[in-house]
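Data availability (excerpt). The following record was deposited with the supplementary files.
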Amino acid sequence: MPAQAALPQIAVVVGSNRRDSINRKLARALARLGAGKFEATFARIDDLPMYNQDNEASLPAEVARFKQEIARADGVLFVTPEHDRSIPAVLKNAIDWGSRPYGTGVWAEKPAFITGTSPGAIGSALAQQHLRNVLVSLGAVLLGGEAYVTFKPNLIDEHGNIGDENTRKFLQGFVNRFATLVERLKPAAKQAAAA
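Predicted structure:
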């Protein structure tokens, strides 16, 4: 009987450094929706120093750790709020570090799924669009479609699951498609090692 292939490894990047972030709650619920399809690990970004090209020659330990986490992942799930109609500074900083120094970026050909939530009606749409522009320019392979989620009191239940059935079905569809995309683009070397 052939060995069962290892599940794809997903790095989850939450674009907020708030302890009680609604986007962190959504990210955890999405990781639950992906159970059995991928293994999710949260990549910390709130401890990264502000990007400075002067520090590229000797990367800070936190930056080296973050880049390794992304490089090892088969895909990246971004769950972000919107700050002033754009990407939160903490998230842009992480993306900048992940792309530098030149020639050592971790985003190229990396499958990615972008979503996010906010109490507003457009559910972080502008931040997601800006993030798409940045990641495409860095060579990431983005899952198509738009997953804007308005945060309401019943969105995440007391067990950390998506509480609203329609929203759960909507997001499950994206999670399933993302898992398929990651599996399809998983490097051949990793597939061979898992066989």
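Summary of structural features: Helices lie at 22-33, 61-72, 89-99, 125-137, 165-185, 188-194.
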